[in-house]
Write a structure and sequence with these properties.
The protein is of the alpha/beta class. It contains 8 helices and 14 strands.
């Protein structure tokens, strides 16, 4: 299994793109502006999209993906997410006002888009890769994603602040090799992080200290312009973890 980072920034500008991770060549985890870095043939190869939550920086590429390749697909693009997240996408995005409802184009019987609820406690296996939602703690319904393969596991936190349930879920994955987890603000902006339910260096360090597993830790969703400060504070707060910033274009293999 190969995971390619299409976008991992907490914002845009100067080559930064928002969250989108490509699993092999046919599955996306989130559909932020990083999706726009793919060429047309790569877009056409995507069959499944897992959405962690419905905030714009994680879904903005989804309607454009369908608009670009929907008419050339033989089967609907399937979007997997918590039922509450799919409700938001249905009400506020694919609603004929902000964007057409591709679940009814060209017809309800042969659409370009299909929603597939994936709730906590459920798993979906696609070509030997198992996807499972994990608890997250954000301002809207949200989840992380546990991606399991025969060679080991990777977890992506999505957007979250501290979650006892998320820590417990990580500790129950003995073959966890990689943890991609967000830290959006430096310590002096902890009040903003708390209000918006994101991590800051001290909060993530405290969470890492609760782990009984020892994955490689990659930091995502760093706010533009604050990346160096956040990473410096993280390395000081959690020195034994060797945390590294996730990079656009990076490839993680399992």
């Amino acid at each position: 299994m190969k995971l390619t980072v299409l976008g991992c920034s907490g914002g845009i500008g100067s080559g930064r793109h928002t969250t989108s991770l490509l699993v092999d060549d046919d599955v996306l985890v989130d559909a932020g502006s990083g999706l726009t870095t793919l060429d047309f043939e790569q877009l056409l190869a995507i069959d499944h999209v897992f959405i962690t939550h419905a905030h714009l920086d994680h879904v903005l590429g989804l309607p454009l993906l369908l608009d670009s390749v929907g008419d050339l697909r033989g089967t609907p693009l399937t979007v997997h997410a918590l039922p509450e997240v799919l409700d938001v996408l249905s009400t506020h995005l694919f609603n004929w006002q902000l964007w057409p409802d591709f679940r009814k184009i060209p017809s309800a019987e042969a659409p370009w888009l299909r929603f597939a609820p994936l709730d906590f406690g459920e798993v979906l296996t696609l070509k030997g890769r198992t996807f499972r939602p994990l608890p997250a703690n954000h301002v809207v319904p949200a989840c992380g994603i546990h991606l399991a393969t025969a060679a080991g596991s990777l977890v992506f936190s999505g957007d979250t602040t501290h979650s006892d349930a998320f820590v417990a879920a990580l500790n129950a994955i003995p073959d966890l090799r990689h943890l991609i987890i967000e830290t959006s603000f430096e310590n002096e902006l902890a009040d903003i992080a708390m209000a918006s339910k994101h991590h800051w260096p001290d909060s993530l360090a405290a969470e890492l200290n609760e782990l009984k597993v020892t994955p490689e830790v990659w930091i995502t969703h760093l706010k533009p312009g604050n990346e160096s400060a956040i990473m410096s504070e993280l390395r000081a707060a959690a020195p034994r973890w060797g945390v590294e910033a996730l990079l656009q274009g990076q490839v993680i293999e399992l």
